[in-house]
Structures are given as structure tokens and as C-alpha cells.
Write a structure and sequence with these properties.
single chain; alpha/beta; 2 domains; Arc Repressor Mutant, subunit A; 225 residues; globular; Rossmann fold; 10 helices
């Protein structure tokens, strides 16, 4: 199945470069380009994109607002957003993940990394560059960035999880893949996947990236541990 990709960036030259790269792959096609967030949301609704490569900083409706609009729209529940950032220590990355983005990628990433990120997001695996994403979340949430009433998850929500689901969530928060978690907990990857899916359902998380945020915001996982 062909992955339909939407490019949202205010730099036309960058969009052109991404288009050439994406369209060169047999399993992908660019279905639209947007120069601001509002336009990206409109095209996503009209074209049915699978993955949106979304720049964080754009004039008008920025990438963060556009991501919220996409993830809160029931019609776009299967659309995955990958945030593009110039700096991998961009403070908006955590806000983007909270808004429902599946992960992030630096604009300086290698072509192979970008293509892999699109495929991973399209497959619903979500968390891109686990170690880097984990580092960003740890850095900013450790500074108290996750404590506001609007975005923080009440740790009481974790009570809905079984002991094993909590154990798996801790490992997910550590940036480990299903295979790595399976090895560490001495269970099968399929069992881990089942626990991850159940945890997402109980915590109302769109994907793995949001599970990482929840793990930090509830204090289940702490920076440096």
C-alpha cells in the first residue's frame, strides 16, 4: 500500500527537496504541500494523508496548533504527524508530542532516516529516534514543564494499568523497542505489543510517543533513571 505523505513547511525549497526524496520511493507519494498549518489541516482532510511532515515554526497557524487540529479531528484519527525541527533540543518538541504528534525528526537528518521515520509512523509504531525523543522529554519535563493542569496526566490514571502493563510502560518510557522489552522482561514481543496496546487504550494515548510523555508526566519514569 502506498503511503500518502503531506509536506507542511513554509520553505518552498525544502518542500521541493522532500518531494523529490519521497516520490522516489515506490511505496510513497506526496499528496500535497502546505506553507502553513491551516493549509496542512485542510489538505489532510481533502487528500486523506497517512503521514504529515510538519514544521514546528510556520507563519500564521504554526505546526503545534495544526497538530492539535489534526489529532483532535475524528475524521483524521489515522493521520500521523512527524514534527520537523531545526534543532533537536527544540522546546516545542515536547508540546508537539503532547498535542498528539507521533514523534520528531531534525531537518538535518539523513534521507534514509526521514524515509524510515515516515514508514515507522505510517505503521503506527510512532516513536521516532527513541533515545533522542526520550532525552528531550526527560530534559524539559524534569524542569517542571509537565506540571501544568492543562497537560499533565494525573498519576492516579495509572491505577487502571496492571502490574505488567506498568512494567512495560516503564520500559517504553526508557525508549526501548518491543523486542528489547521482550528480552528484558523475558516474554515474547507479541506479549509486549499486547500490553502496549492495552496501556494505550486505558490511558487514551494515540501512540507510543504519548506513552513516553505519560510515563514522565506521571512520575513513573524520571529523568536520569
Amino acid at each position: 500500500m502506498t503511503i500518502k505523505v503531506l509536506l507542511a513547511d513554509d520553505q518552498a525549497l525544502l518542500r521541493s527537496a522532500f518531494r523529490v526524496l519521497v516520490d522516489s520511493e515506490p511505496d510513497m507519494e506526496v499528496v500535497g504541500e502546505a506553507s502553513d498549518g491551516a493549509q496542512a489541516v485542510e489538505i489532510a482532510r481533502a487528500k486523506g494523508a497517512d503521514v504529515v511532515l510538519m514544521d514546528i515554526r510556520m507563519p500564521g497557524t504554526d505546526g503545534l496548533a495544526a497538530t492539535r487540529m489534526i489529532t483532535e479531528d475524528p475524521r483524521l484519527q489515522d493521520v500521523r504527524v512527524v514534527m520537523l525541527t531545526t534543532f533537536e533540543v527544540d522546546e516545542y518538541v515536547v508540546d508537539s508530542l503532547r498535542a498528539g504528534a507521533s514523534g520528531f525528526l531534525g531537518k538535518g537528518a539523513e534521507p534514509e532516516e526521514l524515509l524510515a521515520a515516515i514508514r515507522i509512523a505510517a505503521a503506527g509504531e510512532a516513536l521516532l529516534s527513541p533515545a533522542a525523543t526520550k532525552g528531550l522529554i526527560a530534559r524539559f519535563l524534569a524542569q517542571g514543564d509537565g506540571g501544568d493542569d492543562d497537560s499533565a496526566y494525573d498519576s492516579a490514571r495509572l491505577e487502571a494499568l496492571t502490574v505488567r502493563e506498568r512494567e512495560v510502560l516503564v520500559q517504553v518510557g526508557g525508549g526501548l523497542s518491543n523486542d528489547e522489552i521482550a528480552t528484558r522482561l523475558e516474554v515474547s514481543p507479541l506479549t509486549v505489543k499486547t500490553h502496549v496496546n492495552r496501556a494505550m487504550a486505558k490511558l487514551n494515548a494515540r501512540d507510543r510517543a504519548q506513552l513516553v510523555v505519560i510515563a514522565y508526566e506521571t512520575g513513573l519514569v524520571r529523568a536520569g533513571h
